[in-house]
Amino acid sequence: MKHATSVFLVLGLTLSAAFSQTVELRTFTNALGKAVQAKLVGVSGPNVTLETAGGQRYTFPLSSLSAADQQYIKSAAVPAAAPTATFKPGPNDKLEPASVNEVVGQPLFSEALLWTSSAEALAAKLKIPPESKTKNTSSYRAYTEDGYLMFGAHPYSVAMYAENDKVTGFSIVFANKGDLFRSSGGGEMHFDKDTPPEEAGKIVKKAMDKDLAAITESLTKKLGAPKKERFGEKAGRMNMQRWDWRGHAILLAEAEGVYVGLQIVTTAFADAGGKVEETGDKVIRARVLANLEKRANGDVVVGDLPMVDQGPKGYCVPATAERAMRYLGIPADMYILANAGQSGFGGGTDVNMLLDGMATQIRSKRRSFDTWKGDLKLKELAKYIDKGVPVMWGLYTTEKFNEIANKRTQERKNVTNWASWKTKVTEEAANNRLPPDPERGHVVLIIGYNKDTNEIAFSDSWGEDYKERWITLPEAEQVSDKDFYVVGF
């Protein structure tokens, strides 16, 4: 169970899709005087469950609330079992789940709302592999095979997000200039890609037009004409076509020349235009500091970071930026960020353009955004990592660099004599030559360090196998492009 004070502090935050409530909200206050609007869901023994207007549920000790709220809850006679979620009725609600699933092309919907469904079970049914799992959140992502269809078109990426194993939303990306010209492999192999054709822009437009028409036609035929709405925040705000069914809003968007995307969120979240409440600094500071791991061998590592797998395309910058933003409580999507950064065909992003747009969104959420150029300095990195905050680092991820990092990371798992390890890696670092390769520009998160062994830990946006790797500082300096960025507070 989460710490009661921290849980209550974040009750006012909604970072996921939400549904409308028929039960009125009430102001609850904890023992420290912090107030939040929520509704009472249930009581089980000494614990109480509250639900925010955004649909997030939190369970913590009843005793952590004010005396007046404790008395209210005791007299409310709320059943232990959570009530079924409700939503505003609509003309399409008469359609059975099987009928709507014919449009989806997959067994997505059932009689239960997605938001009350187990994310793990639904992912297994839809055959979407897990991408990331933290203490409270999880994501699942499939880069689909040819022939896989949803809503009458082929999606390249199907992502599902969840909190506490309850689905919070889907992000499905169809024709886009990143995946249409993606390379032959993921991870380290994504640099081995063909040169995009000269007519790339025409090819992308034709594919996008085709998908947009097919999806629009299939949804309109079943759910009627869409509403035209604006959705999202700041640089990510877009024109959407919207269809509703039983508390689910299906939103279709076209980022001109970049991608066709479809989101499934709660109707309440769509009604709010996709705007998300801010998470206070005190909440974020406590949350990330609690994730800091201090290991017996001297490693200091930022833990519980969400993973975003960029797949077989050059989206390392937007994928890494999404990870940093989500970790600090700022909603983000790598495809939308790639659009802001004017990513090229097959990937490759204008880092400065992306970060300029990102900085505006970050600061609007009252987060800081620091950038600097210079040498790798453990003292400078530790200043952020000791607060539980990772550092975005630009480098040239050469084959030899990856070979050394992979080997060291595996060897570290079996080290018992760290003094001998320090001697070994210090000698190896002195002898290794790692010339940078401008063709292999990359961005990762520096997530840890060990002062005694003079090593840093970094995390790539290539999936769980690359979540934590280690290299010495002198070796890292050889491949550094000397650019650093931090989403902080």
How does this structure look, described?
By secondary structure, this protein is an alpha+beta fold. The chain has three domains: 26-75, Roll (SH3 type barrels); 97-270, no CATH class; 281-488, Cathepsin B, Chain A (Alpha-Beta Complex), CATH 3.90.70. Helix content is 30%, strand content 26%. The chain has 14 helices and 20 strands. It has helices at 4-9, 67-76, 97-104, 119-126, 200-223, 267-271, 281-290, 316-327, 334-340, 351-364, 378-385, 399-412, 418-431, 473-479, and strands at residues 26-29, 35-44, 47-52, 57-61, 130-133, 137-143, 157-163, 166-176, 227-231, 238-245, 248-255, 259-266, 292-294, 300-302, 368-373, 391-396, 441-450, 455-459, 469-472, 480-488. The strands form three sheets. The chain has an eight-stranded antiparallel sheet, sandwiched between helices. Strands 13, 14, 15, 16, 17, 18, 19 and 20 form an eight-stranded antiparallel sheet that branches. Helix 8 runs parallel beside helix 10 (351-364) and helix 9 packs across helix 10. The longest helix is centred in the middle third of the chain and has 24 residues, at 200-223. The two termini are 26 Å apart.
